[in-house]
Design goal:
Number of strands: 14
Structural class: alpha/beta
Distance between the termini: 60 Å
Strand order of the largest sheet: 6-7-8-3-9-10-12-11
Largest sheet: 8 strands, mixed
Strand content: 15-25%
Mean pLDDT: 82
Helix content: 25-40%
Number of helices: 12
Length: about 400
Amino acid sequence: MTPPATSLTKPVTPGQEHSQPSDDEQPLVDIRDLQVHFPIRRGVIFDRTMGHVYAVDGVSLVVRRGETYGLVGESGCGKTTLGRGLLRLVEPTGGYAFFDGVDLRTLSGEPLRTMRKRMQMVFQDPLSSLDPRQSIESILAEGLKAHGLYGKGGKAGSSEKSGHQTLRESLDAVGLPTNALNKYPHEFSGGQRQRIGIARALVLRPDLIVADEPVSALDVSIQAQVINLLEELQEQFGLTYLVIAHDLAVVRHICDRVGVMYLGGLVEETTSDNLYRTPLHPYTKALMSAVPVPDPVVEDSRQRILLAGDLPSPANPPTGCRFHTRCPWRQQTRCDTERPALRELEPGHRVACHYAEDIRDGKIAAHAVAAELVHSTGGTEATPGVTNITAEISGTLPPGH
């Protein structure tokens, strides 16, 4: 049974708690224990499900109206799948996804199509997301025609002029000339194509835009232009952003709050400034230590946390805390067996770690980690050679040992 959309007090399992908005403010997006599992099938004649890829496994978060919420994490942690699951571009396996008080998982057909007008997405690759056989006018008008909005209003006389007026306004908002309507995607640079993707999302005047790596494929100078454009459009149209990125500098600049994902789960959530100032989860500490500082004195003196091994397979995630196979602060008592709850340690700062307070207060010291080879069929195997390579890179082990 689906819980009432107005209730924000639904109990959740450990690791799935989410922050509560104020009583007089209903969040625009309220995700509760969302799961997206992809079946692993084998067989030619008889198709059998051999297991699942746990791309998103129990994520709960809230995005308030008018804010920019950032999702960060290394490749394969489930960021993009979470955004697509929210928009129902991939079907969630479980949990709830409320948009403006309506559970999107209960919608289908025309109600879902109508709701999607208020939710748009900017895709990672600006070229592959644009049809090379369509002109820019056809690409931008497609959404308006699908929702029956192309040509309505008629302020300029005929319906055709009204449709063109909407397209021109969208192009003008992203800084492109009107003559771009007659061109094709291959005639534009990467930054211009990304602006076209933003204009396509903007043409329906949505409330929420999910931006999946909106600047990762662009040059640094073009990145700054697109980021500034997104901020200007947010102020102009009152947009709410869910920004998916791996560039922590971009996230710090544009996002109000940030959620850190690891292997399908949310491990830390706080404001952007607080995340950079006092990261509390061991994985977030490692991420922050990898961000270069433009000060050679500070850069040479600060501590670098080098994680051993690779990201475990989402088809066979570790038991207990999913980060314990790479965690320098791993403890034998609970880390291997009990998945930590996402709990609030400080106002507005949630962390999924059993020993976050002890790590913060210096009661638990970091130790060396032996990398583990995680097999997709289960089981782990220590690989000391990888540990030695990591130690050589960090300068703590002489070469050749």
